[in-house]
Specification:
Length: 227
């Protein structure tokens, strides 16, 4: 096979020579062969470069980049805080199970869990109210002295510690804390009265004497409202 080496003139251009037919065929064959070799070579190079590209970036990015961005890119403030909290959480989480094993006892009891939810859901507000007192006698309740409150609950509810209110302002069941009544403990609104309108409150006593002793007081009443 005649493989003509590309002889170049001093100018760099291939020598312009008129080839014979055989030479043309041979040259064409040689070109074909060289083209085939070139394709193979190109493919080989491509594979090699791909392999190199696969091998290099992986090892480089895996080893160098995660470390460099954190330490070297100190000027990039946003990515660093984002990446740092993640490990910070991950690390406490790993030791956490060891610590959490003794901690389950607090959440384990059901009663505390059921009591806990209402606590954060309740908000309080304070209302300045005119607070009077009453008892279940006929003088205080007239025809309503039947042992039952307007809410339907017995006057014995909550140890007979409850209040009457304007239910347009404080609905039945609303808990209020009245200074000086039941030691300021929250008591429910169970009753209402014809004269208990607006910012009026009637605290309940079992005896008429104690109700009279209470008199009339202007107090800051705390209202507990569930949401
Ligand atoms: Zn009375």
């Amino acid at each position: 096979m005649i493989v003509e080496k590309p002889k170049r003139e001093p100018g760099g251009r291939p020598r312009a020579r008129v080839p014979s037919n055989a030479l043309v065929r041979g040259r064409n064959a040689g070109l074909l062969t060289r083209t085939g070799q070139g394709v193979l070579l190109a493919a080989g190079l491509l594979v090699a470069s791909c392999l190199a590209a696969m091998a290099r970036p992986w090892s480089k990015t895996a080893d160098a980049e995660p470390i460099l961005p954190l330490e070297a890119r100190g000027d990039v403030t946003l990515p660093v805080p984002d990446e740092e909290p993640a490990p910070a959480r991950a690390e406490p989480n790993q030791p956490a199970p060891a610590v959490a094993v003794p901690s389950p006892p607090p959440p384990a009891p059901a009663p505390p869990a059921s009591v806990a939810p209402p606590a954060p859901a309740v908000t309080t507000r304070t209302i300045r109210m005119r607070v009077t007192a009453y008892c279940p006698c006929r003088v205080c309740c007239g025809r309503h002295s039947d042992g039952k409150t307007a809410s339907g609950k017995s006057i014995l509810t909550n140890g007979s510690h409850f209040v009457a209110a304007d239910t347009r302002l404080l609905a039945f069941g609303t808990r209020v804390s009245v200074p000086g009544y039941y030691a300021g403990a929250p008591v429910p609104v169970l009753d209402r009265g014809a004269r208990i309108k607006g910012r009026r409150l009637d605290v309940f006593f079992r005896s008429h004497q104690r109700a009279k002793r209470w008199g009339t007081r202007w107090l800051n009443v705390t209202v507990y409202e569930a949401r």
